[in-house]
């Protein structure tokens, strides 16, 4: 297990819930990029595959948790971009 990989995942893990909260609160996706989120998701998927096939350790759960928050953020993006928000 790499302490540095775990540290990176913890930092990202703190950042994603904050991003989700800000998107939910603002009900706006101005300045967000769906493509960027997709690229981040592909990176996490690659990390999960590596953990499953080559180096299984507890950091896998951090990857999965971060993926969940990215999926939530992507869902909010689609919601606020394409469905009208009732105020």
Question: In oligomeric terms, what are we looking at?
Answer: single chain
**Average pLDDT level:** 92
- How many domains? The number is 1
Largest sheet: none
Please count the helical segments: 3
Number of strands: 0
Instruction: Tell me the overall shape.
Output: elongated
Provide the gyration radius in Å: 14 Å
Helix content: over 70%
SSE string, helices as H and strands as E: HHH
Structural class: mainly alpha
- What percent strand? under 5%
First-residue to last-residue Cα separation: 48 Å
Outline the low-pLDDT stretches.
none
What topology does this entry show?
Blueprint: H1 3-26, H2 34-53, H3 59-82
What does this structure look like?
This protein is mostly helical and 87 residues long. It has one domain (3-16, 29-82). 78% of the residues lie in helices and 0% in strands. Helix 1 packs parallel to helix 3 (59-82) and helix 2 packs antiparallel against helix 3.
Descriptive terms for the model:
mainly alpha; 3 helices; single chain; elongated; 87 residues
Provide a brief overview of the structure.
The longest helix is centred in the N-terminal third of the chain and has 24 residues, at 3-26.
């Amino acid at each position: 297990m790499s302490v540095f990989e775990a540290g990176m995942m913890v930092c990202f893990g703190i950042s994603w819930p904050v991003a989700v909260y800000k998107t939910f609160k603002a009900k706006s996706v101005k300045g967000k990029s769906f493509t960027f989120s997709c690229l981040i998701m592909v990176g996490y998927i690659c990390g999960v595959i590596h953990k499953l096939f080559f180096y299984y350790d507890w950091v896998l759960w951090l990857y999965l948790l971060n993926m969940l928050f990215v999926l939530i953020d992507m869902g909010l993006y689609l919601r606020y971009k394409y469905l009208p928000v009732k105020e």
